[in-house]
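Sync notes, pocket subgroup
Present: LS, DG
LS reminded everyone that the earlier model was apo-only. Rerun requested with FE2/S2 (inorganic) cluster included. Inputs:
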Amino acid sequence: MSKKLASGGVWRPEQSPLILNKRWQETGDTVSFEFIAQNQAHFEFKPGQFINVEIEIDGKKEYRAYSISSIPGDKYLQLTIKRVAGGKVSNWLIDNLQPGDQLNAIGIAGQFNLNDCQYGKRILLLSAGCGITPVISMARTLLSSKQSIDIEFIHCARDKDNIIYHSEINVLNEKNTNFNCQFLLENKFNDHDELVGYLFGIINKDKLDLLCADWQQRTIFLCGPTAFMEAVKDIVQKTGFDTANFHQESFTPNQQYESHTGLASSKENVLGSSAKESIVFSVAVPSFNYKTEVIQGATLLDALEQGGIPVIAACRQGVCGSCKCKVAQGQVHSTSTETITDDEQQQGWVLACSTMVEGDVEVSLS
Ligand code: FES
């Protein structure tokens, strides 16, 4: 029996796949994708959240999380994806997904968003590279809602050609008196006339003071590559900034995991090659009649994926909650409990990607 699709209404991933409406090149290595729901529903989410998508490549299902850059209430959903070395899913989408194609999604999640994070009348959006995707959704939403929020926006990029949403931001700058975006570029370019309006260098306190003199009186939303986020957090901590006014995305959407696939595979190699001289524990999933051995400190996700256990892992960094599973027995150590309630923790629920095996364990997926 075919599913009854709600025409209109709010999009739900289990009711309707996404259909690619159009795509365009943002910069040399980033592409924006605009989707519609097959059942014509509109998209509701909290600005700043990400969507978990499922894709089959060479017969294997892969899951990834991508920040949504469009605004809630719209019939279009926009993702912007960067090509990265070794980035299996991102590169596949860029190389293959064409208008009319279907993409399955699992759901929308993320606590870095305008609804759940408190903010005042003055905010500072601070992003680098593809970390601009959730904060542009915040900016677009605030501006379209006509809230009287004063928005300073600092975006850092390699050079002018690598500024994502560049022309749109220039238009927003011109049209909105409460919006001011400035660019901090790592590399200079030659055309002297065009140098006006850009600052060069990498983020530090002097640059921050120069670009936004009252940044310490604002609510900060931060998203970007790890080194950039660490640099900003260091500035914030050293100045005694009130952390209640500081919100950061816990992972760099899409390309951070993708760019770390080398690390992931080297961890797999460790699992295989060093098992003999390390402490080894067993991981069993009785409902799948599966048992394997891993070295101490391997993640549960490693152990489950080794055996092809169908665990969904979209962000792989303890943020999205998609890899939730239950440790029925045995000792583990978790570094993230995001999305898991206290009650669930008491019952043994953990995030497989952020849970290390510290003894023989038995796991269930439900
Ligand atoms: S994969 Fe997202 S929390 Fe584990």
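DG: The chain has three domains: 18-109, 122-253, 260-364.
LS: Residues 313-316, 318-323, 351, 353 surround FE2/S2 (inorganic) cluster (CB under 6 Å).
Action: DG to write up.
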